[in-house]
Structures are given as structure tokens and as C-alpha cells.
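Late entry, written up from scratch paper. The run itself happened at the end of the previous shift, but nothing got recorded in the book at the time, so transcribing now.
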Amino acid sequence: MSGFLHDDQIAVLRKQGFVVARQFADPSQVASLRALAQRHLAEHVAPIEYEADLQYPGAPASRGAEGGLTVRRLLNAYARDPLFAQWATDPRIGQWLGRYFDEPPVLSTVHHNCVMTKHPAYGSLTGWHQDIRYWSFSDTDLVSCWLALGPETRNNGGLSFIPGSHAAAFAPEQFDDKKFFREDVPQNTDWIARAVCPELQAGDVVFFHCRTLHAAQGNRSDQVKLSVVHTYHPASCQPVAGTRSASQPGVPLMVAAESD
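Output as recorded:
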């Protein structure tokens, strides 16, 4: 795909903490990834995280309860199938993020690295949070790449983002004990009011900073929503030894040649 790399997209990411790159993935690639995700979902191919495991609002009480085997994430996408690995290390992603980081990007195989699902029934709500809350790296300039495998809107649980939140210096009391951004704190009201939910189509990608506040509502449609998400860091940024972030090696990305 020519012309996908635009400096203005990177400028938007720097300014607001997220940016949508329309039709970043080829339709045939998206179709293959979607078919594979649907098969693994139907067959419950491990490793899997179930909604009941996290107990977010709307989730079943346990795996043994009604809806207890509703899948939240198909984990370890990079090692799950070569198709997922090819997407995670796509040279176009390498080029885009290499331009952003101004150095080679590295795929984290620990954080995200999954197929996110959102089911119409028992698909839980996810409160406002920053992904960096449980990550341990020498720097905090990490970026995630979220690929929509179908339409994503507020109605089916699409991601909402708070522009500019990645650059804010929030106080600890603005978050609860699980590091969710509190909706009952007055100083958070104006921030939450700024939230936007970009509508995505299959093949669209959202690049978003690990400090950008984001959230997702439940899925009020009649179809399961599927997305693939991976996280990347610059080669000079290292996971902290002895932490979960360092528990598996990263994968350096090749960078595609730029198109005229």
C-alpha cells in the first residue's frame, strides 16, 4: 500500500495521543486474520483470557456461571499462528513506528499481543485507564497498534480515547486502587468530557500512546467484535529486569522501504 506513511499522522499521535490510519491493512490480510480469529474463538484455542477472569462490570461471576466461558482475549497472538506473527511484524508497521520513534521498533510479546473480542452478551465494560499502569520499561514512550477486523463504533464497544491525556501529569488520587481513572472525582470531569470514539472499518488501525486514557462500553450489537492489538517500544527502551515486562523477549521489526 503506497502513501500510507504521513508525517501529519505522526504529528497527530504526538499531539493527541492517538491517530487513526485508514485502510492500513490490506483487505485480503484482514479477511485471513478475521477467519483465523473466528476459528480460534469457536474452538477455544488456548491460551485464552475469559471475561469471568477479570470481573469487570457486566462479566459473568465465574467460569462456571451462565456465560462463564465468554472469551475476552485470545492471548499470545505472535506465537499463536504465523498469520498473526506476520501482521505483528509487518514492515509497514515497522516503517510507521520507526518514523515515530526515530529508531527501530521492537514488538513486546508480553503486553497486549492478542486478539481482543467484545461479545454482545457478557462482554464487559472497561473503565478509563492508561496501559502503562502495569508495565515496567526504562521509558514510557510505547505505542500500541490496534487493527479493526470489522466495524467498530460506540454501539458495539469500540474504543474511546481522551485526547491529550498522554501528556498530562495526573495525581495519584485521580485513580482508584486498580489504577482506573475515577469518574467520581471533580478534576476528572473535564477530561472525560473530551472523550471521542473514532468509528473504524475493517482494515483501519489506531496507533495510541501507552499513557493515553481509553475505555470501552459494552457491545449492544448482535455480532462479536474482533480486533488485533500489539504494543511496540523503541530499541533503546528496555523492559526492567525481573518484571513481567521482561519475562519474554521482544521481536525487532524490519522496516519497509518508503514509497514515493
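The longest helix spans residues 27-42.
(Scratch paper discarded after transcription.)
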